[in-house]
Amino acid sequence: LPLKWFSIPQCWRFETVQRGRKREHYQWNMDIVGVPGVTAELELLAAVTTFFKSIGITGKDVGIKINSRKVLGAIVEAAGVPKEMFAPVCVIIDKLDKIGPECVTAELTEKKVPVESSKMILRAMECKSIEELAELCKGKVDMTAVDEMKTLFAYAKDYGFADFLIFDASVVRGLAYYTGIVFECFDRQKKLRAICGGGRYDRLLSLYGSQKEVPCCGFGFGDCVIMELLKELKLMDKVLEECKRKVDFVVAPFNAELFGAACSVAAMLRSGGFTVDMMQKAEKKVRNAFSYADRAGATYIVLVAPSEWEKKAVTVKSLRTGGREDEDRGEEIALADLVAKMQKAFSR
Questions:
Q1: Distance (Å, whole) CA 104 – CA 118
Q2: Residue 157 buriedness (CB in 10 A; 0-12 / 13-18 / 19+)
Q3: What is the predicted pLDDT for the residue at 101?
C-alpha cells in the first residue's frame, strides 16, 4: 500500500430514463487504498480536474462541493442523536436541496429526532464557509475533521485547482458507508444532475472480510452527464475530434515477401518514439492501404515496395495535406535518415 486503481466498466441500473441518467452507462471509477490522510482525496480531485481541463472545462463551468461526513457525524451526535441513527439522518438531510428545510425537519421528526436537534443540524448545513462551520463547532465537537478540510483546500491551491472547489456543508452523499470527506461535482449553471461524486469510506472493506479497518477513498464519474455538459458548452465536436484515434504512421508492405521488411521499418519508427500501426497483410491495391491508413487516423503512410527497398529506402506520404494519393506519390527516404527526418517533420 498505497494501492491506486481505476476502471471504466459498463454499468446498469433500474432507473427512470431522463436527461443525464440512463439504465445503461459507462462509469470511470478511481480509488486509493491505504492512505489515511487527505492527500488521497487531493489526488482524486486532481485527477477529476485534470480531466476537465483536458477537454476544455474550467472552474467557471463546474464546481466541486466539499464537505465532511466526520464533521456532520460529530454535529449530529452533539445534537443528541444516537449513533445508530446517523445513516438514516444522512439519507434525509441529503435531500435538503430538493425538498427544503421544512420537509427535512418533518422527516427527521418522523425518525424521532427532536426539533431542537434538527435545528442545530440544519444550522450547521447552512454554514457558507469552513471558518463559519469551525466557529459553530468550537467547543462542541472534535476539530480534527474541520482541520482536514482546511488542509485539503490549502493543498488544492498548491496543486492549481482550488478554483474548482467550493465548501458546501449541505453535501453529505446519501450512501451510508462514507466516513470522512465527501465531494460532488456540478455544473455552475445548475441545469444538470451531479457530474461525479465520491469520498472516504474507511470501513467498507471490513464489510467484505477485512480483519482490520483499511483507509480508502474513491469516486464514480458516469458518462451521461458529462456528455450533456459538453453539448451545453458547445465543446462536443472539439472533444470528439481530439479523441479520434491518433497514429503517426501506418506501415504498409507491398506484398507478403516484404512483410518482414515492413516489420523492421515499424520497429525502427517505434524506437524513434512514434505511434505506428503495422498493416497485418499486404494489400494488392495501394488505394486500399491508403483507405486503411485514413481510417486509422494516421498522419503518414509508409510504403515498403520492392524497388525502394532494394535501395534501402521507403516511400513516405502525408495523409493530412488534402492531396489524393494518385496526385502525390510521396517522398522517397533512405532508411538511415527515416527517423531523424520524420522527427524533424513532426517538430515543425
A1: 8
A2: exposed
A3: 84
